[in-house]
Each structure stands twice: as structure tokens, then as C-alpha cells.
Specification:
Elements lengths: L1 H23 L15 E2 L22 E3 L2 E5 L2 E5 L2 E3 L7 E3 L2 E5 L2 E5 L2 E3 L2
Length: about 120
């Protein structure tokens, strides 16, 4: 019986590790507007969508919820969903992406981490 218990515990641990990895890993390596490219549109962006965090508690205690934003791709606005992310340094805060009207149209200012 002890060997069977150990095998069941090892199997449960393996499944828990796999499931945890799936929840924490980002779905795609998107830079969230922090690529350095200048994006300008002649059209105003749509209103932000209300997008609450999918769970009340972060998958990892150090992560914060970064809400979604409108991106410019293929000549139109595309919604990029929010995600959980860990700041690069303890205490950093996320500054969301924004669209600012300038002399040449609407310019995206990418989201970024700000040191405190």
C-alpha cells in the first residue's frame, strides 16, 4: 500500500505542476505596447473595454493584473486582452498604455513598468 500511495502522490504532484504552469505562462509573448515602435492612427481609439481580472487572486503573489488595451494592427484597432505579469523589480508599478492626440493623429504610448 505505501508504494501505491507514493505513486498517487507523485502523479498528483506532476498534474498540479503541469496545471500551474499552464495558468502562469503567458499565452503569447506580446510586448504590451513596449516595443519602442511609434504607432500613429488618424482615427480615435474605441473606448476601453471593462476587463476585470479573471480571478480575484494573482496566480503568483508578486504578479499584478495588467488590463487590456487597444492596439493598432493591419490598419485597424485590435483589442489585446489583459494578463497577469510580475514586475521586473520589487515595488515597480504598471503604467497603462494610452492614446494621445497629436499633430499627426492619435499616437500610442506603450504601457511600461515604472520604478518607485
Amino acid at each position: 500500500m505505501p508504494k501505491r500511495s507514493a505513486a498517487l502522490c507523485a502523479g498528483a504532484l506532476a498534474v498540479a505542476t503541469l496545471v500551474t504552469g499552464c495558468v502562469v505562462a503567458p499565452a503569447e509573448p506580446y510586448a504590451y505596447g513596449n516595443s519602442g515602435a511609434v504607432v500613429v492612427s488618424s482615427e480615435a481609439p474605441p473606448p476601453l473595454r471593462y476587463e476585470p481580472a479573471p480571478v480575484a487572486v494573482a496566480p503568483i503573489a508578486t504578479q499584478v493584473w495588467i488590463g487590456g488595451f487597444w492596439d493598432w494592427s493591419g490598419g485597424r484597432y485590435v483589442w489585446r486582452e489583459g494578463r497577469w505579469a510580475a514586475p521586473p523589480h520589487h515595488g515597480d508599478r504598471w503604467v497603462p498604455r494610452e492614446w494621445v492626440r497629436g499633430p499627426h493623429g492619435w499616437q500610442a504610448r506603450g504601457g511600461h513598468w515604472e520604478r518607485r
